[in-house]
Amino acid sequence: MISIVIPLYNKEHTIQRTLGSVLAQTYQDFEIVIVNDGSTDNGSTAITEYTKDERVRIIDQPNQGVSVARNQGVLHAKNNYIAFLDGDDEWLPTYLECMYQAILKYPNAGMICSAGKVRSGGHEHIRLAKKYDGLITEIDFFHNPHVFLHTSATVVSKKAFNLTQGFPVGMKRNQDFALFFSLALITQVVYCGFPLSIYVGDVEGQATAKPFNEVMSHVINRYNLVYSTWESKAASNKSFIIFMKYELRHTFLSMIKNKDYTTLTNFMEGLENGIEKKFSTWEWSMFKKQSFKILAIFFIYATKIRWRMRDYPIVQS
Predict the structure, then answer these.
(1) Is residue 205 assigned to a domain?
(2) Exposed, middle or buried, 170 (CB in 10 Å: 0-12/13-18/19+)?
(3) How many domains does the chain have?
Protein backbone atom coordinates (compact mmCIF):
# COMPACT_ATOMS: atom_id res chain seq x y z
CA MET A 1 0.00 0.00 0.00
CA ILE A 2 2.79 2.48 0.93
CA SER A 3 6.31 2.77 -0.49
CA ILE A 4 8.85 4.44 1.79
CA VAL A 5 11.61 6.32 -0.03
CA ILE A 6 14.82 6.91 1.91
CA PRO A 7 17.74 8.77 0.27
CA LEU A 8 21.03 7.63 1.79
CA TYR A 9 24.22 9.63 1.76
CA ASN A 10 26.82 9.09 4.48
CA LYS A 11 24.33 8.25 7.22
CA GLU A 12 26.07 5.13 8.54
CA HIS A 13 25.68 6.47 12.08
CA THR A 14 21.89 7.02 11.86
CA ILE A 15 20.36 4.82 9.16
CA GLN A 16 19.90 1.74 11.35
CA ARG A 17 17.93 3.75 13.88
CA THR A 18 15.84 5.22 11.08
CA LEU A 19 15.10 1.80 9.58
CA GLY A 20 14.36 0.39 13.01
CA SER A 21 11.63 3.00 13.48
CA VAL A 22 10.04 1.93 10.18
CA LEU A 23 10.13 -1.77 10.89
CA ALA A 24 8.52 -1.12 14.30
CA GLN A 25 5.42 0.45 12.70
CA THR A 26 2.02 -0.90 13.71
CA TYR A 27 1.02 -0.63 10.03
CA GLN A 28 3.10 -3.17 8.12
CA ASP A 29 1.82 -3.07 4.53
CA PHE A 30 4.82 -1.25 3.07
CA GLU A 31 8.01 -1.55 1.09
CA ILE A 32 11.23 0.38 1.73
CA VAL A 33 13.19 1.78 -1.20
CA ILE A 34 16.62 3.01 -0.10
CA VAL A 35 18.54 4.99 -2.72
CA ASN A 36 22.24 4.97 -1.90
CA ASP A 37 23.42 8.23 -3.45
CA GLY A 38 27.11 7.40 -3.79
CA SER A 39 27.83 7.21 -0.06
CA THR A 40 31.51 7.17 0.85
CA ASP A 41 31.00 5.68 4.31
CA ASN A 42 29.75 2.20 5.25
CA GLY A 43 26.09 3.16 5.32
CA SER A 44 25.04 0.71 2.63
CA THR A 45 26.99 -2.08 4.32
CA ALA A 46 25.38 -1.27 7.65
CA ILE A 47 21.93 -1.98 6.24
CA THR A 48 22.71 -5.05 4.15
CA GLU A 49 21.17 -7.29 6.80
CA TYR A 50 17.86 -5.48 6.40
CA THR A 51 17.55 -6.72 2.81
CA LYS A 52 16.75 -10.15 4.24
CA ASP A 53 13.30 -8.62 4.61
CA GLU A 54 11.82 -8.87 1.10
CA ARG A 55 10.15 -5.49 1.59
CA VAL A 56 13.55 -3.73 1.68
CA ARG A 57 15.40 -2.81 -1.51
CA ILE A 58 18.62 -0.84 -2.02
CA ILE A 59 19.25 1.06 -5.25
CA ASP A 60 22.81 2.26 -5.81
CA GLN A 61 23.64 5.31 -7.91
CA PRO A 62 26.61 7.69 -8.30
CA ASN A 63 26.27 10.78 -6.14
CA GLN A 64 23.75 13.06 -7.87
CA GLY A 65 22.10 14.81 -4.94
CA VAL A 66 19.04 14.28 -2.80
CA SER A 67 16.53 15.36 -5.47
CA VAL A 68 17.70 12.70 -7.92
CA ALA A 69 17.80 10.11 -5.14
CA ARG A 70 14.21 10.81 -4.07
CA ASN A 71 12.98 10.93 -7.67
CA GLN A 72 14.62 7.58 -8.37
CA GLY A 73 13.00 6.16 -5.26
CA VAL A 74 9.57 7.24 -6.46
CA LEU A 75 10.28 5.86 -9.94
CA HIS A 76 11.09 2.42 -8.51
CA ALA A 77 8.27 2.44 -5.95
CA LYS A 78 5.67 -0.27 -6.49
CA ASN A 79 2.82 1.36 -4.55
CA ASN A 80 0.62 4.36 -5.25
CA TYR A 81 1.44 6.16 -1.99
CA ILE A 82 4.94 7.40 -1.24
CA ALA A 83 6.18 8.23 2.25
CA PHE A 84 9.42 10.21 2.38
CA LEU A 85 11.89 9.67 5.21
CA ASP A 86 15.41 11.05 5.53
CA GLY A 87 18.18 8.77 6.71
CA ASP A 88 18.58 10.56 10.05
CA ASP A 89 14.91 11.05 10.96
CA GLU A 90 12.50 8.66 12.68
CA TRP A 91 8.84 7.78 13.05
CA LEU A 92 6.89 6.88 16.15
CA PRO A 93 5.22 3.43 15.88
CA THR A 94 1.76 4.64 14.78
CA TYR A 95 2.92 7.14 12.13
CA LEU A 96 2.05 5.01 9.09
CA GLU A 97 -1.17 3.80 10.69
CA CYS A 98 -2.31 7.41 11.10
CA MET A 99 -1.34 8.30 7.53
CA TYR A 100 -3.18 5.22 6.26
CA GLN A 101 -6.30 6.32 8.12
CA ALA A 102 -6.01 9.68 6.37
CA ILE A 103 -5.76 7.92 3.00
CA LEU A 104 -8.92 5.93 3.74
CA LYS A 105 -10.78 9.04 4.88
CA TYR A 106 -9.62 11.20 1.95
CA PRO A 107 -8.89 8.86 -1.00
CA ASN A 108 -8.62 11.79 -3.43
CA ALA A 109 -5.92 13.59 -1.44
CA GLY A 110 -2.61 13.81 -3.27
CA MET A 111 -0.62 14.98 -0.24
CA ILE A 112 -0.90 14.18 3.46
CA CYS A 113 1.15 16.06 6.06
CA SER A 114 1.67 15.17 9.69
CA ALA A 115 2.60 17.00 12.86
CA GLY A 116 5.88 15.95 14.40
CA LYS A 117 8.59 16.37 16.98
CA VAL A 118 11.90 18.18 16.61
CA ARG A 119 14.96 16.97 18.51
CA SER A 120 17.95 19.27 18.51
CA GLY A 121 20.58 20.45 20.95
CA GLY A 122 19.42 18.08 23.65
CA HIS A 123 15.89 19.49 23.55
CA GLU A 124 12.62 18.39 21.99
CA HIS A 125 9.62 20.43 20.92
CA ILE A 126 6.44 19.71 19.01
CA ARG A 127 5.70 21.00 15.50
CA LEU A 128 1.90 20.92 15.49
CA ALA A 129 -0.75 23.19 14.03
CA LYS A 130 -2.65 23.95 17.22
CA LYS A 131 -5.89 24.54 15.34
CA TYR A 132 -5.92 20.91 14.15
CA ASP A 133 -4.61 19.14 17.24
CA GLY A 134 -5.94 15.55 17.28
CA LEU A 135 -7.71 15.84 13.92
CA ILE A 136 -7.34 14.26 10.49
CA THR A 137 -8.76 16.88 8.18
CA GLU A 138 -8.50 18.64 4.84
CA ILE A 139 -6.61 21.94 5.05
CA ASP A 140 -5.79 25.02 3.05
CA PHE A 141 -2.07 24.33 2.90
CA PHE A 142 -1.12 27.94 2.22
CA HIS A 143 -2.64 29.15 5.45
CA ASN A 144 0.74 28.23 6.99
CA PRO A 145 2.91 25.74 5.04
CA HIS A 146 5.86 25.94 7.42
CA VAL A 147 3.69 24.66 10.26
CA PHE A 148 2.22 21.84 8.20
CA LEU A 149 5.23 20.64 6.25
CA HIS A 150 8.30 18.51 6.83
CA THR A 151 9.64 16.08 4.25
CA SER A 152 9.88 13.13 6.67
CA ALA A 153 6.27 13.77 7.70
CA THR A 154 4.74 13.79 4.22
CA VAL A 155 3.02 11.16 2.10
CA VAL A 156 2.06 11.81 -1.53
CA SER A 157 0.21 9.82 -4.13
CA LYS A 158 2.35 8.71 -7.04
CA LYS A 159 -0.41 9.91 -9.38
CA ALA A 160 -0.15 13.46 -8.03
CA PHE A 161 3.67 13.33 -7.92
CA ASN A 162 3.77 12.42 -11.61
CA LEU A 163 1.84 15.59 -12.45
CA THR A 164 4.87 17.59 -11.30
CA GLN A 165 8.53 17.65 -12.30
CA GLY A 166 9.40 15.90 -9.04
CA PHE A 167 12.08 17.27 -6.76
CA PRO A 168 13.98 19.85 -8.87
CA VAL A 169 17.35 18.44 -9.82
CA GLY A 170 20.37 20.57 -8.91
CA MET A 171 18.49 22.71 -6.42
CA LYS A 172 20.55 22.79 -3.21
CA ARG A 173 18.00 24.65 -1.11
CA ASN A 174 14.19 24.54 -1.02
CA GLN A 175 13.86 21.55 -3.37
CA ASP A 176 11.30 20.06 -0.98
CA PHE A 177 9.35 23.33 -0.84
CA ALA A 178 9.39 23.51 -4.64
CA LEU A 179 7.75 20.10 -4.96
CA PHE A 180 5.32 20.15 -2.05
CA PHE A 181 4.15 23.72 -2.65
CA SER A 182 3.51 22.81 -6.29
CA LEU A 183 1.60 19.71 -5.24
CA ALA A 184 -0.53 21.77 -2.85
CA LEU A 185 -1.60 23.89 -5.81
CA ILE A 186 -2.91 20.94 -7.83
CA THR A 187 -4.28 18.45 -5.32
CA GLN A 188 -6.23 18.10 -2.08
CA VAL A 189 -4.06 18.33 1.03
CA VAL A 190 -4.85 16.58 4.32
CA TYR A 191 -3.27 17.14 7.75
CA CYS A 192 -2.83 14.66 10.60
CA GLY A 193 -2.73 16.58 13.86
CA PHE A 194 -0.72 13.96 15.71
CA PRO A 195 3.05 14.49 16.37
CA LEU A 196 4.26 11.10 15.11
CA SER A 197 7.33 12.00 13.02
CA ILE A 198 10.69 12.97 14.48
CA TYR A 199 13.11 15.40 12.87
CA VAL A 200 16.54 14.86 14.38
CA GLY A 201 18.86 17.87 14.25
CA ASP A 202 22.54 18.30 15.15
CA VAL A 203 23.48 15.04 13.44
CA GLU A 204 27.06 14.54 12.28
CA GLY A 205 27.26 14.94 8.52
CA GLN A 206 23.90 16.67 8.33
CA ALA A 207 23.60 19.44 5.78
CA THR A 208 24.16 22.76 7.51
CA ALA A 209 22.88 26.18 6.55
CA LYS A 210 25.12 27.86 4.02
CA PRO A 211 25.48 31.63 3.64
CA PHE A 212 22.40 32.97 1.89
CA ASN A 213 24.43 34.35 -1.02
CA GLU A 214 25.57 30.79 -1.86
CA VAL A 215 22.06 29.41 -2.13
CA MET A 216 20.10 32.51 -3.10
CA SER A 217 19.71 31.45 -6.73
CA HIS A 218 18.12 28.17 -5.60
CA VAL A 219 15.68 29.98 -3.33
CA ILE A 220 14.77 32.31 -6.21
CA ASN A 221 14.26 29.27 -8.46
CA ARG A 222 11.86 27.81 -5.92
CA TYR A 223 9.71 30.94 -5.88
CA ASN A 224 9.70 31.15 -9.66
CA LEU A 225 8.91 27.47 -10.17
CA VAL A 226 6.01 27.45 -7.73
CA TYR A 227 4.66 30.74 -9.04
CA SER A 228 4.75 29.32 -12.56
CA THR A 229 2.72 26.34 -11.36
CA TRP A 230 0.22 28.68 -9.73
CA GLU A 231 -0.06 30.82 -12.84
CA SER A 232 -0.66 27.86 -15.17
CA LYS A 233 -2.74 25.57 -12.98
CA ALA A 234 -4.17 27.30 -9.92
CA ALA A 235 -4.54 31.03 -10.56
CA SER A 236 -7.78 31.04 -8.58
CA ASN A 237 -5.94 30.07 -5.39
CA LYS A 238 -5.78 33.37 -3.50
CA SER A 239 -4.27 31.81 -0.36
CA PHE A 240 -1.05 31.08 -2.23
CA ILE A 241 -0.56 34.71 -3.26
CA ILE A 242 -1.25 35.93 0.29
CA PHE A 243 1.28 33.46 1.68
CA MET A 244 3.89 34.12 -1.01
CA LYS A 245 3.83 37.86 -0.31
CA TYR A 246 3.99 37.24 3.45
CA GLU A 247 6.97 34.91 3.08
CA LEU A 248 8.82 37.19 0.68
CA ARG A 249 8.37 40.18 2.99
CA HIS A 250 9.82 38.09 5.81
CA THR A 251 12.85 37.28 3.62
CA PHE A 252 13.25 40.93 2.65
CA LEU A 253 13.06 41.97 6.31
CA SER A 254 16.28 40.20 7.27
CA MET A 255 18.24 41.91 4.49
CA ILE A 256 16.72 45.32 5.24
CA LYS A 257 17.65 45.02 8.91
CA ASN A 258 21.22 44.08 7.95
CA LYS A 259 21.35 46.91 5.39
CA ASP A 260 22.29 44.33 2.74
CA TYR A 261 20.62 46.17 -0.11
CA THR A 262 22.88 44.67 -2.77
CA THR A 263 21.70 41.14 -1.95
CA LEU A 264 18.13 42.36 -1.56
CA THR A 265 18.12 44.02 -4.97
CA ASN A 266 19.68 40.97 -6.65
CA PHE A 267 17.13 38.72 -4.98
CA MET A 268 14.17 40.89 -5.99
CA GLU A 269 15.39 41.26 -9.56
CA GLY A 270 15.77 37.48 -9.89
CA LEU A 271 12.08 36.91 -9.22
CA GLU A 272 9.59 36.46 -12.03
CA ASN A 273 8.02 39.69 -13.24
CA GLY A 274 4.62 38.28 -12.37
CA ILE A 275 5.65 38.01 -8.73
CA GLU A 276 6.70 41.65 -8.63
CA LYS A 277 3.34 42.66 -10.05
CA LYS A 278 1.56 41.08 -7.08
CA PHE A 279 3.01 43.89 -4.97
CA SER A 280 2.11 47.54 -5.33
CA THR A 281 4.70 49.64 -7.16
CA TRP A 282 5.36 51.84 -4.15
CA GLU A 283 5.88 48.87 -1.82
CA TRP A 284 8.30 47.14 -4.19
CA SER A 285 10.29 50.35 -4.60
CA MET A 286 10.28 51.11 -0.87
CA PHE A 287 12.04 47.83 -0.01
CA LYS A 288 15.00 48.68 -2.23
CA LYS A 289 15.68 52.12 -0.79
CA GLN A 290 17.78 52.42 2.36
CA SER A 291 16.28 55.83 3.06
CA PHE A 292 12.95 54.06 3.64
CA LYS A 293 14.40 51.42 5.99
CA ILE A 294 12.35 52.33 9.08
CA LEU A 295 9.14 52.65 7.08
CA ALA A 296 9.78 49.31 5.36
CA ILE A 297 10.37 47.50 8.66
CA PHE A 298 7.25 49.03 10.19
CA PHE A 299 5.20 48.11 7.14
CA ILE A 300 6.38 44.49 7.14
CA TYR A 301 5.61 44.06 10.84
CA ALA A 302 2.17 45.54 10.22
CA THR A 303 1.52 42.92 7.53
CA LYS A 304 2.64 40.20 9.96
CA ILE A 305 0.01 41.39 12.44
CA ARG A 306 -2.58 41.31 9.69
CA TRP A 307 -1.50 37.76 8.83
CA ARG A 308 -2.08 36.65 12.42
CA MET A 309 -5.48 38.30 12.46
CA ARG A 310 -6.57 35.92 9.69
CA ASP A 311 -6.69 33.12 12.31
CA TYR A 312 -4.24 30.98 10.39
CA PRO A 313 -2.80 27.96 12.24
CA ILE A 314 0.09 28.55 14.62
CA VAL A 315 2.55 26.13 16.18
CA GLN A 316 1.42 24.40 19.36
CA SER A 317 3.33 25.92 22.27
Answers:
(1) no
(2) exposed
(3) 2
